[in-house]
Amino acid sequence: MQASVVAVLGRGVVPAGTPVMRADDPGVLGEGLFETMLVRDGVPWLLDEHLDRLAASAPALGLAVPTSLAELVLSACAKWPPELEGALRLVCTPMTAFCTIAPVPPRTLSLRVRTLPAASGLPVKSLSFGPSLTARRWAAANGVDDALWVSPDGYALEGPTASLVWLDGETLCTVPPSAGVLPGVTAAWLLAKAPSQGWRAGHRMVKPEALPAVGGVWLASSLRGLAEIRVLDGVELPQSPHTERLRAMLGY
């Protein structure tokens, strides 16, 4: 397996395994933000959009975001083999910023999903990632591939690490940020491209029991791309004829 690339703000690319955080960094306790990007052909996909989301999230944590994060990311990408896809994680804490690149985990393209009451928290991609990891472990323990968080009033929200996207008639939909979800970079890109496919784009709320009747249901994220939900709470969903077209748009 290809070894990780590690780059640290102010230090550049360092050997893999080099310590990158001090023990007294508040990031150790989860005070910080991160973004995950796909490196394709040596280039971080949707870099500007990910940096914009990180900057928009920073005030919620009182975090000052360095202005040189793009240069940090690009310095790491320059050391990654361009023929390999890479999973890049950019981390920003009160005391440092660093990024790592490692091989992309195997993708599961057809998902069995169960709903789970939503975890409370800010709609930011913070280092306090415990609820998401717990939800993924809960899904595995219950014999499914992933979880779909549901609001107290019964609306589908998002996966622990992915945005919910569905096709309702001629409208490609995702959940509005006002529902308290993390604004998905990949989902936003898909909705921006919807008119080129003859669809409208919309932010809507939907209940899980309505999803078997729509034209396709997916979880979207930077690394997995687009994974179709085929079983939801034990109910088999029809296979969407649009999945391959959407994946081709994303380049996955």
Please describe the structure with a list of short key phrases separated by commas or semicolons.
21% helix, 252 residues, D-amino Acid Aminotransferase, Chain A, domain 2, Putative aminotransferase, class IV, alpha+beta, BCAT-like_N, D-amino Acid Aminotransferase, Chain A, domain 1, 5 helices, 6-stranded antiparallel β-sheet, transaminase activity
Description:
- It is built from five helices and 15 strands.
- The protein has 252 residues and is of the alpha+beta class.
- The protein folds into two domains: 99 residues, Aminotransferase class 4, branched-chain amino acid transferase, N-terminal domain (D-amino Acid Aminotransferase, Chain A, domain 1, 2-Layer Sandwich), CATH 3.30.470.10; 141 residues, Alpha-Beta Barrel (D-amino Acid Aminotransferase, Chain A, domain 2).
- The strands form two sheets. Strands 7, 8, 9, 10, 11, 12, 13, 14 and 15 form a nine-stranded mixed β-sheet that branches.
- It is globular and about 55 Å long.
